[in-house]
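Structure ticket #2291
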Amino acid sequence: MVHFLNIGSQVVRSELLAMSPSGPFRLAVHHPNGPIVEYFDSAIAGLQRQAEIEDALSGYRSDVPRVAISGTPVGSA
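Resolution: structure written out below.
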């Protein structure tokens, strides 16, 4: 899976790849300051880490709740 994120005038590309059909999974985030490469046992763990990295790069503050399109805070039941 390849994902692109625009941060100002910069484009950050991230890739989550299965190293074999059942894992492990390789997450590579490419940004102007250099790549970040990490490995995970599951795709879900890799996607969660991808979101954390993108939040950090975009200046997202964890003390401000995210709101989905529906208006419900993300992570609420």
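Closing remark: Strands lie at 2-7, 10-18, 25-31, 34-40.
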